[in-house]
Amino acid sequence: MLYYLFQYLETLNVPGARLFGYISFRSAAAVILSLLITMVFGKKLIEVLRRRQIGESVRSLYLDGQNQKAGTPTMGGIIIIASILVPVLLLCDIANIYVMLLIFTTLWLGTIGFADDYIKVFKKNKDGLSSRAKLVGQIILGIVIGTVVYTSDDIMNPLKTTVPFLKNNEFDYSKIVWFLDMDNYGWVAGILYIAIVTFIITAVSNGANITDGLDGLAAGTSAVSATTLLVFAYVSGNVVFSQYLNIMYIPGTGELVIFTSAFIGATLGFLWYNSYPAQIFMGDTGSLTIGGIIAVLAILVRKELLIPIFCGIFLMENLSVILQLWYFKRTLRKYGEGQHLFYMAPLHHHYQKKGLPEAKIVTRFLIIALILAVVSVITLKIR
Description:
The chain is an all-alpha fold. It has one domain (2-307). It has helices spanning 2-11, 23-51, 77-91, 97-121, 131-151, 182-211, 217-236, 239-244, 254-274, 283-300, 307-310, 312-335, 347-353, 358-378; strands at 160-162, 170-172. It has a two-stranded antiparallel sheet with strand order 1-2.
């Protein structure tokens, strides 16, 4: 709301009011504010959760150090959500269509994750919300986001995206159905786009959820991915940079820089308490939400085809689970006894089983995430 207040003060020629017109100032303020909220609110929440004995119920996976995590406060995703939304509501133009979509994403997935954590913690049901219910919630979100992006008059060329490493890097999803008469069957391209958006949101959200298995892993890798998206949002929303880099200019995405800055501040601030040994876990309240936000951000800045690179950790974790299940079923049919491709899935548990310390695994995964982020950014020039 401060954004609108200072807009009004600018009309009155109040000194310093113009600062709020600069994206760089508001994004810096968003990072600082989200960090402060996380640090202060996080400490208070941890104390409250400990007093009420709202802790993680850990399933026995026979991993070193696992039993010590039992009873650690969970539902810390509330900290992340609050640390994102407060700076956004204060510093962003909340009438911006991109900001509205991200606020909806945050609240929607935060509610689904909170319901899952609530069932686990308060109802003492380790399974939490059913996988089907979570999947339905993610699909509904994907349909809403895809439909709004496709039909909104405020979003230019919704079917166009960016293909990495190609000189002529713009691609129109309608070309997938090139054999159809778009004058009469243009709606088919729209449905195809909505299906792609839904798949991306579901996959990335679940990828973040699966990655949240070691102290600081999900928060750290998410902060790295979000920093990559911040660069893309800034250059895509700037006429000069987009022309210089010969990339798609997307009006209005400058506000995404402020939202992404708040997201980075929230995840880094949460990492203060979530790094090894964790004082609090984010739970599904946090992991589903941060994954969904990253997916929607990538879609809005038309960089969803780069997700396998800058979200490479999420992809590896997802694939390890899929491959583990596929290999087990295949060997069960072939030999009558299921075998494992990895010691354990997802992938971070595989390395735990090999005897690597948890902190070392997280650090190495973060280094890989940083390398992938750099590769993603340099695709702006390498074609």
